[in-house]
Amino acid sequence: MGTDFWEISLFLLAAIQFAAMGAAAIHALLTKSDERAAAGWVGFIILVPFLGWIVYLMFGVNRIQRRARELRGEKQDLFLLEPPEHGERRPRDSGLHLPALESLARLGQRILPESFEPGNSVRLLLNGDEAYPVMLDMIARAERSIAISTYILNNDRAGRQFVEALSDAMARGVRVRLLIDGVGSWYSRPSIIPLLEERGINYARFLHSFMPWRMPYLNMRNHQKIMVVDGRHGFTGGMNIAEGNLHASNPKKPIRDCHFQVEGPAVAHLMHTFAYEWNFTTDEILEGEDWFPEIEPAGEVIARGLPAGPDMGLNPIRWTLLGALAEAQSSIRILTPYFIPDATLRTNLSLAAMRGVIVDIVLPEKSNLRFCDWAATPGLEWLARSGCRIWKTGAPFDHSKMMTVDGIWATIGSANWDDRSLRLNFEFNLECYGASFAGALDDMIVRRISTARPVSQEELAGRSLPVRMRDAFFRLASPYL
């Protein structure tokens, strides 16, 4: 009896192993777009009995996109940068006649078939000292509606100023909608949520969970920073609402950052992105003249919104970055707080530098997430060897995010150069064509470079063995940082 039991048990274990091994190997072959990743996983699954397919199920299956699409459900089809009553979204002629970058505009519409809007003004605002007063003044002058989406709204002097301004606006009869990320709402202690409820602010938290350790909710964060007043006046960029951005008040942990005031037809792209996320979170549909009025031209910048998230097959921001790197002829300038690009982005940066394009990558000497700095370093060594120029800026920590190409094209917004922004989070960037605006960003980046220190290939290659091992270890986790 004992012998029969063990024989049956061994047979069942073998059957489970071969069935699970076969299923996992087939899944890896069919779903991994990178041949090396597919070969590595298949080899691991076959050569390591039981543990191989178990580890693959835990770490090899990409559940982010599927989970995001499940959460979106039917609302995935509601994403329109056209007003809802205007019918289905459709690709249009780009309207651009810029010989140097016209092919980039054509590529952009294949990536995301939304129109480029001429006649915009995009104004650079440095730190909270410049941005917050303009935003608060716009809230004070609001007549019909205010929409704000932010990752972080801290319960500090800056956050309370916005809460009071929104409370005053609601008292005047202005329709207010405030969307805060479910994880970002916990960044300050105590949270600002009780104050929002006390003031009666109409707010919602994006994918909020009382169990923040749940993997589906640690990823798929709403990292977008959008504010639209009366459907006409927009703000976007990478700046959260926190006292650290107010340098004049001498905060304990000052942060350098940039935000942008947007006027013109492209503001509708900000508003529609907000309306989509608000509808997903609350089921309320924002429509009508209060939110979507006719907008007159206000400047010379041609722009369009680039919303992106893990529910999309192709991430529009990532693919736009790849297209811009391929089209660059003279210069690429990147300013970002976190720089852990995937192999494809690194390769395209290297190719641009080897073609003779001047590639400047400006990073903080120390970010607020040291493990991200460590994970970034191995890739920097490769880029420096290819001819990219790496610069490190000193304190305070620089949280600015922007990229320019050839002094005529720029992208600004919430996305960092890492997998979290380009694969896992919901982000919003603004793609801009205009020599004056791109030139102003170039000037600002050059000023950053003038006070930064260059990081040479020799310095990167000369790191001690323990440091190289540390950096390589954190590099392994880069898809989730």
What does this structure look like?
With 481 residues, the chain is α/β, with parallel strands linked by helices. It has 3 domains: 2-61; 115-303, Endonuclease, Chain A (2-Layer Sandwich); 316-480, Endonuclease, Chain A (2-Layer Sandwich), CATH 3.30.870. It contains 17 helices and 17 strands. Strands 4-3-2-5-6-8-1-9-16-15-14-10-11-12-17 form a 15-stranded mixed beta sheet, sandwiched between helices. A two-stranded parallel sheet has the order 7-13. Strand 3, helix 8 (193-199) and strand 4 (203-206) form a beta-alpha-beta unit. The relative contact order is 0.12. Mean pLDDT is 87; it is low at 78-94.
Summed up:
This protein has 481 residues and is α/β, with parallel strands linked by helices.
Gyration radius, rounded? 24 Å
Structural class: alpha/beta
CATH superfamily of the largest domain: Endonuclease Chain A
Taken from the alpha-carbon principal axes, the silhouette is globular
Cross-sheet strand order for the largest sheet: 4-3-2-5-6-8-1-9-16-15-14-10-11-12-17
Low-confidence stretches: 78-94
**How many helical stretches?**
17
Second CATH tier, the architecture of the largest domain = 2-Layer Sandwich
For the residues shown, what is the average pLDDT?
A: 87
The CATH class of the largest domain turns out to be Alpha Beta
Tell me the fraction of residues in β-strands, as a range. 15-25%
Total discrete domains: 3
Q: Give the CATH topology of the largest domain.
A: Endonuclease, Chain A
Task: Write out key terms for the chains shown.
single chain, 481 residues, alpha/beta, Endonuclease, Chain A, 3 domains, 15-stranded mixed β-sheet, two-stranded parallel sheet, 17 helices, 19% strand
